[in-house]
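sry for the spam today, last one i promise. struct tokens for design, 188 residues
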């Protein structure tokens, strides 16, 4: 009788642990997906602002079309990436960020452009958006770290394997993409 009670209690405790761990994985996965959605919202905002910025700069720096075309190409490339492919999205976003830096560096050579209210407002909006994207990336990476840590720790890793909870990728620069780590150089 006592052995049966002990076996039932142990089985109930094990079942409660499995249920609790499973629900913890679901919570972390949903937080990670929500964080990724926040990144997508901010990137969409940036994609919408870029054409306005480019058009404003075109009026002042018509002979700098190569720089402006790179920004548009980078924007189009970033928009074409599957939003579920975190690695490719990170790579394309880093290229776009570099292209945007070159536009802001370009503006330093055009004092009338720097004084243009439209350009200043767009520049402010893009910087604000970049700050929001950076915050969203940190939030996403924090959730990914929590999820991945739980998926790798024993005995939760057994539950993760049983229910196919796979590690999530961080949103970061690719190791091979050293060019994105370099300062942008603008030459005239």
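last one done:
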């Amino acid at each position: 009788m006592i052995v049966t009670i002990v076996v039932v209690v142990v089985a109930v405790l094990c079942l409660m642990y499995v249920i609790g761990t499973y629900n913890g994985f679901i919570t972390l996965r949903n937080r990670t997906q929500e964080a990724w959605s926040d990144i997508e919202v901010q990137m969409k905002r940036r994609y919408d602002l870029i054409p306005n910025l480019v058009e404003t700069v075109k009026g002042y720096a018509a002979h700098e079309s190569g720089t402006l075309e790179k920004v548009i190409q980078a924007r189009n490339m970033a928009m074409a990436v599957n939003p579920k492919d975190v690695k490719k999205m990170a790579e394309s976003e880093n290229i776009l960020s570099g292209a945007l830096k070159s536009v802001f560096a370009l503006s330093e050579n055009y004092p009338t452009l720097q004084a243009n209210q439209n350009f200043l407002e767009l520049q402010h909006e893009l910087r604000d958006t970049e700050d929001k994207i950076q915050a969203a990336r940190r939030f996403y990476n924090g959730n990914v770290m929590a999820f991945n840590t739980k998926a790798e720790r024993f005995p939760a890793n057994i539950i993760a394997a049983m229910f196919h909870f796979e590690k999530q990728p961080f949103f970061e620069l690719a190791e091979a993409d050293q060019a994105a780590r370099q300062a942008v150089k603008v030459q005239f």
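The chain has one domain: 2-181. ok im logging off now
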